[in-house]
Amino acid sequence: MYRLAQISALIGASILFLQPVWAARFPWLEHRFGLDKLLRFHRWTGIIGYSLVLLHGSLMLIYFGQFGWESIWTILSTP
Fold first, then answer.
1. Is the sign of the CA dihedral 56, 58, 63, 68 positive or negative?
2. Which of 15, 5, 12 has its CA nearest to residue 61?
3. Where are the alpha helices (DSSP H) in the chain?
4. How far is Cα 75 from Cα 79, in angstroms, rounded to an integer?
5. Rounded to whole angstroms, how far apart are CA atoms 22 and 43?
6. pLDDT at position 51, please?
7. What is the spatial distance between Cα 66 and Cα 69, in angstroms, rounded to a whole number?
8. Which DSSP category does 79 fall into?
9. pTM surpassing 0.85?
10. How far apart are CA 2 and CA 61, in angstroms?
11. Which of 13, 29, 49, 64 is the most core-located residue (most Cβ within 10 A)?
12. Distance from CA of residue 15 to its chain's centroid?
């Protein structure tokens, strides 16, 4: 579950990082795909990326809840 939480955070953050590219209206992207398709893609990737980041937080809370809250400080304090 911990690994799934990490993967969902990585993919979600990567998708959200690319969001400005989809909405920037670069001429080469806009001519190729059209503004309507780009903005629709921007909307759905934003929803998916945000959902993955929320899934990450939920999975981490479930994971740490299994071991008690003391394990959070143990993991965070190890180098």
1. positive
2. 5
3. 2-17, 19-23, 27-33, 35-67, 70-77
4. 9
5. 9
6. 95
7. 9
8. -
9. no
10. 10
11. 49
12. 6
Check residue 10 and give its pLDDT. Answer: 93
Taken in order 32, 38, 44, 46, the sign of the CA dihedral is: positive
- Residue 25's region, left for phi above 0, alpha for psi from -120 to 50, else beta, is left
pLDDT, residue 16, reads 92
Tell me, what's the pLDDT at 7? 92
Sequence-distant (6+) residues with CB within 8 A of 62 are: 1
Question: Mean pLDDT per segment of 10 residues, for the chain of length 79 residues?
Answer: 89 92 86 89 93 90 72 65
